[in-house]
Design goal:
The complex is a heterodimer of chains A (84) and B (607). With 84 residues, chain A is mainly β. Chain A contains 2 helices and 6 strands; from the N terminus they run ββαβββαβ. In chain A, strand 4 and strand 5 form a beta hairpin. Chain A is globular, with a radius of gyration of 12 Å. Chain B is an alpha/beta fold. In chain B, helix 9 packs antiparallel against helix 12 and helix 16 packs antiparallel against helix 18. Chain B is elongated, with a radius of gyration of 28 Å. Classes of the chains: A mainly beta (84), B alpha/beta (607). Chains A and B meet through helix 1, strand 3 and strand 5 of A and helix 3, helix 7, helix 8, helix 13 and strand 12 of B.
Chain lengths: 84, 607
């Protein structure tokens, strides 16, 4: 079966090393801040590391790496790029 | 022309090299204070333009944008946006990191749109070039319509150019982003980027090392190993290296005291000078080595970028009790000394998480408790070894430290439930590319911390030690000069106070004599041992006839918990801008200590 071209996910559900495209930032306390840091729809975002206790996560977006708590990351909807 | 110096503000992203530029421009002609009403460091300094014009430079807290969410961001934002703000600048120097032009231009163009005359300082072109990015200064200047100067803040290149261009500062003819919409601003930045910079290959350079190293730094096993090792080194440095200058200060001050008492005849004034003023000054200066060493270590970790990884590693654990990843430094430093540790809570941006960290830090057993522990544990526990290797006393010591750690978690949990959080627990932090620390920043930063402590906590410590001196030197019957030392203490106000509070201390097994030691050791915990020696004679073993094991254990627990340190209260007052939190801290720790001591006294006494 052919996998779908892209899959909608929440940023907090991505695995270490996965890259995705930002789809939407849902309204939240951090959303303006996230947008201003360059988390704008269409940008590519990569989960670089996940902390040993599963939270927080380190993401790379617009050339810089940030740590983010999963409670904030769940407001970022992404399209997962399929890797073959 | 205005008769005050031209006011220049440095604005830029965190990690853009802004502080290096500030230090390079001002050197030692800088001051650190507080912005009024908030506990945000205010760094100001002076410099001169080529024509001799004096300029006043203010280093604004780092910003990613003009949307503020933490106290230091609010300060930076209001200085820039409110033209009637007392620190509103005449000129803004916007520092941008050439290796991440896109995100840095977001803030830069926002500031340009404020219509304050500006100059852009393009920093870290070497890092950018190592990453395959070259930025064209001339084109950038044309595109942004303000002067752009390439600088190298770390080694000082381009500083003269920058100073020469400050008089040319201007605001662009047109707003960069007419609507101010986030996505629109980024679209416009994306449009100018290809012209301003040439990207050869993104993957090269320092980033490769950073990503590779981070695989270890965030690894479940290697990450914690590295973290524990690093903090063990820091702890050792503060604990061990600071001991030499501290002993020297102690000895030096004692020598001065001795010199005064041998020259001048014994009198109340000499006692005031030696036991009051000189002891008070010693009580202030004695902390300087620890502050210098701790803040130098912290600065190296911050500058190198490793500190963010420590926060990343520990955030989850500390969050469960209302703190965050940045609380690690104050908590670990607290084992050496609560004073610099509490000063270090400033790096925690979230006010609630900062306050909780600050409130539980004194529960970490600091080095001043060690003499008290040694004195009482030596009395309580026989000097024997389990299986021939494990010292029973050592195990007991470890237990005392653990009691502090576990109580701090419990207390933090309670404060977390009680306090309101306006920021809903968000926390984000950049994990910057690793780089070598800039030693100038390290030296200037720790020096300014030490000076701040002396200036702002020093006076409180001095006043309290004078009060304690008066309590020990005068009694209800007047001056006590004619009495021998141990009788002097008994007949003093401190002695009277000890007797007065005895009914309160009796339920926890402490008599009025030890009560005196509890009162005098408020100056510093280690004073306890000295006072006990005066009252009971030189050896802890002399306690035997007066002291049951239950009393000694109760006293020990009291010292694990109680807020027996005026310097900590003084620094908490400075760091929270008022007496409210030091009073809360003193009260909760004293009540907690009392209850725990009572339980200990009952349990041990019941055996």
């Amino acid at each position: 079966m052919e996998p779908p071209l892209s899959e909608k996910r929440l940023l907090c559900d991505l695995m270490e090393g996965q890259t995705a495209t930002i789809h939407e930032i849902k309204p939240c306390a951090m959303c303006e801040k996230l947008l201003e840091l360059g988390c704008i729809p269409g940008e590519s975002i990569k989960v670089e590391h996940i902390a040993p206790l599963g939270d927080p996560i380190a993401i790379t977006v617009t050339g810089s790496c940030f740590m983010l708590r999963k409670s904030d990351a769940k407001h970022i909807e992404v399209m997962l790029k399929q890797t073959s | 022309m205005i008769d005050r110096p031209l006011r220049v503000a440095l604005a830029g992203n965190p990690n853009s090299g802004k502080s290096s530029l500030f230090n390079a421009l001002t050197g030692l002609r800088q001051n650190t204070g507080n912005f009024p009403g908030v506990t945000v460091d205010k760094h100001t300094g002076e410099s001169r333009l080529a024509d001799g014009t004096r300029i006043e430079i203010i280093d604004l807290p780092g910003l990613y944008s003009l949307t503020a969410s933490s106290p230091d961001e609010f300060v930076a934002k209001s200085i820039l946006t409110e033209s009637d703000h007392p620190d509103h600048p005449d000129v803004v120097v916007i520092v941008i990191d050439a290796s991440n032009l896109k995100r840095n231009l977001y803030l830069a163009t926002q500031v340009l749109d404020l219509n304050i005359p500006s100059v852009i300082a393009l920093n870290m072109r070497d890092t950018a070039e190592a990453g395959g990015i070259t930025v064209d200064v001339r084109i950038l200047e044309e595109l942004l319509d303000v002067p752009v100067v390439a600088i190298h803040a770390k080694n000082g290149d381009g500083l003269d150019d920058l100073l020469n261009r400050i008089p040319d500062a201007k605001s662009p003819q047109e707003r960069f982003s007419p609507t101010g919409d986030i996505a629109e601003r980024y679209r416009r930045i994306a449009r100018i980027l290809p012209t301003a910079q040439a990207v050869v290959d993104h993957k090269q350079g320092p980033l490769v090392f950073t990503r590779a190293f981070d695989r270890y730094a965030t690894h479940p096993m290697w990450g914690y190993t590295l973290f524990l090792f690093t903090f063990f080194l820091i702890f050792q440095s503060v604990f061990t290296f600071a001991a030499y200058p501290m002993d020297a200060i102690d000895a030096g001050m004692a020598w001065i005291g001795d010199a005064i008492t041998t020259i001048a005849p014994e009198s109340l004034w000499i006692s005031f000078l030696v036991d009051g003023v000189l002891a008070g000054i010693t009580g202030v200066v004695i902390f300087v080595p620890q502050i210098l060493i701790l803040f130098a270590c912290i600065a190296v970790l911050e500058e190198s970028g490793y500190m963010s990884r420590v926060s990343f590693l520990n955030d989850r654990l500390l969050r469960s009790v209302g703190m965050n990843g940045r609380s690690v430094v104050p908590l670990v430093s607290g084992f050496a000394c609560a004073v610099p540790a509490i000063m270090a809570t400033r790096t925690i941006e979230n006010p609630k998480e900062r306050l909780i960290t600050l409130m539980v830090t004194p529960l970490m057993s600091c080095s001043a408790r060690l003499p008290v522990y040694v004195y009482l544990v030596g009395y309580l526990i026989p000097d024997t070894y389990l299986f021939g290797v494990i010292s029973l006393q050592g195990l007991f010591f470890l237990g005392l430290y653990m009691i502090g750690v576990m109580l701090s978690a419990a207390v933090a949990w309670v404060f977390n439930k009680l306090l309101k959080d306006p920021t809903s627990g968000s926390f984000f932090l950049e994990l910057p590319v690793y780089r070598g620390p800039r030693w100038r920043n390290v030296a200037l930063g720790s020096w300014s911390k030490a000076m701040t402590f002396v200036r702002e906590a020093g006076s409180v410590i001095l006043v309290i030690s004078l009060i304690l001196w008066a309590l020990g030197s005068f009694g209800p019957s007047g001056t006590l000069d004619h009495l021998p030392t141990h009788e002097k203490l008994e007949a003093s106000f401190a002695g009277a106070l000890g007797k007065f509070i005895e009914p309160v201390l009796q339920p926890i097994g402490i008599d009025w004599k030890t009560g005196i030691a509890v009162i005098t050791s408020f100056a510093a915990r280690e004073v306890f041992v000295g006072t006990m020696n005066i009252l009971y004679g030189l050896d802890g073993m002399n306690l035997k006839p007066d002291y049951s094991a239950a009393s000694a254990a109760s006293l020990l627990i009291f010292y694990v918990i109680a807020m027996q340190c005026m310097s900590t209260l003084a620094i908490v007052k400075r760091e929270t801008n008022g007496w409210k939190w030091p009073i809360v801290m003193f009260t909760y720790l004293t009540v907690l200590a009392y209850v725990a001591s009572w339980i200990t006294f009952r349990v041990v006494g019941g055996w």
